[in-house]
Amino acid sequence: MPELPEVHTTVEGLKKVVIGQIIKDIWSDFHLNTKHKGKDTIKNKKYFDYFKQLVVGAKIISIERGGKNILIHIKKNHQGLTLEKYTIVIHMKMTGHLMVGEYQFRNSKTWIAVKEGPLQDSYNQFIHLVFSLSNNKHLVLSDMRKFASVVIFETNKLNEHKTLATLGPDALDKKLTAKRLFEIIHQKKKMPIKSALLDQSAIAGIGNIYSDEILWQTNIHPLSLAEKIPEKKFKEIFKVMRNILKLSIKHGGDSKSDYRNAFGEKGNFQNFHQVYGRKGEECPKKNCLGIIKRIVVKGRSSHFCPKHQILYK
Questions:
Q1: Where are the alpha helices (H) located in the chain, listed in sequence order?
Q2: Distance from C-alpha of 42 to C-alpha of 203, rounded to nearest angstrom
Q3: pTM of the predicted model as reported, rounded to 2 decimal places
Q4: Which end of the chain is more exposed for a tag (fewer CB within 10 A), N or C?
Q5: What is the pLDDT of residues 21-59, one digit of tens each?
Q6: pLDDT cut 90: percent of the chain above it
Q7: Mean pLDDT across the stretch 127-141?
Q8: CB within 8 Å of 71: residues ≥ 6 apart
Q9: From residue 254, how far is each of 77, 238, 262 by CA, in Å?
Q10: Which tens digits make up the pLDDT trace of 238-297?
Q11: Whole-number Å distance between alpha carbons of 217 and 6
Q12: DSSP output for 101-116
């Protein structure tokens, strides 16, 4: 699942190409699955028709990140009057990623990138949502497993979005401090630290990859109880969290799995993994002779070194 660095990388890429563009048309086949009937998502045909009515003819005025969500802000003019501003909220879930390029609709069922290059990567071929833009390019959502969520809200009512309304402070928020991070995590009481870091209502943006890397580097066992980790340790957690997330952003995010950036290209942070996905390998920490293990913590995969990562209980 794209985490903070991947969503950040996508947003920064989209800003270069789509801001100021008019959405001329929209296509999707998400709604062909009738199990979403009645739900407020474009996977519901009735909602998709409502979504399309608001979006077509609108201008993309800005894009930002909210946790792991992409927020595309639009406005629509009618006879010289600016109507209410709306925000398209996209969560890419497990395998989704947004890209921009020139596409053609082929065989009445699929969209194909016109030019040879990264957009023709096999991971980029699962196109289920297409915005046709005024610069003759297309903003597309590739999503192999079709789990992505796409909804629209009045911009001034985003606080009613059930996910955005419950987000904790962003992991890279300049106002977040080590002391505040300690206070937030300790409220999780007997929750494993792995789960606490994944809890978006506590800290927004961290997922499986970065939680594993943070805990490995700070020598904390993923099953450690959040309330048992001493406050002084959170200075280290805070610093490492920021450094790892910024390092990943610098390298374009993590493409160990499906993620590709706004231009269909891989990120490179997977080349810097110390523990994630390295089950059975020797721990790379200096002077540590441990072997990386994988366990499941409250339904989520967790990689760690049993030798140097301390269990606080």
A1: 4-15, 45-55, 178-186, 193-198, 208-217, 233-250
A2: 28
A3: 0.95
A4: C
A5: 999 999 999 987 656 665 789 999 999 999 999 999 999
A6: 89
A7: 97
A8: 63, 64, 65, 87, 88, 89, 90, 158
A9: 39, 21, 13
A10: 999 999 999 999 999 999 999 999 999 999 999 999 999 999 999 999 999 999 999 999
A11: 21
A12: E-EEEETTTEEEESSS
- Indicate if 213 belongs to the active site: no
Enumerate helices (H) and strands (E) in the chain, giving the number of each.
Answer: 6, 14
Write down the domain spans for the chain.
Answer: 4-66+68-166, 178-304
Among candidate residues 148, 151, 41, the one with its CA nearest the CA of residue 86 = 151
Could you tell me the two tokens for 127? 């196109």
The residue from 6, 43, 65, 68 that is catalytic is: 68
In tens, the pLDDT along 27-36 reads 999 987 656 6
68 given a catalytic annotation: yes
Tell me if residue 3 is catalytic.
Answer: yes
Is-catalytic flag, 2?
yes
Q: Report the Cα–Cα distance between both ends of the chain, in Å, rounded.
A: 29
CA distance 21 to 82: 16
CATH number given to 4-66+68-166: 3.20.190.10
Question: Among all chains, which residue has been given the structure tokens 């997922």?
Answer: 207
Dihedral (CA of 39, 75, 261, 176) sign: negative
pLDDT of residue 189: 86
Pairing mode of beta strands 77-78, 81-82? antiparallel
Residue 168 one-letter amino acid: G
> How does residue 90 score in pLDDT terms, banded at 50, 70 and 90?
very high
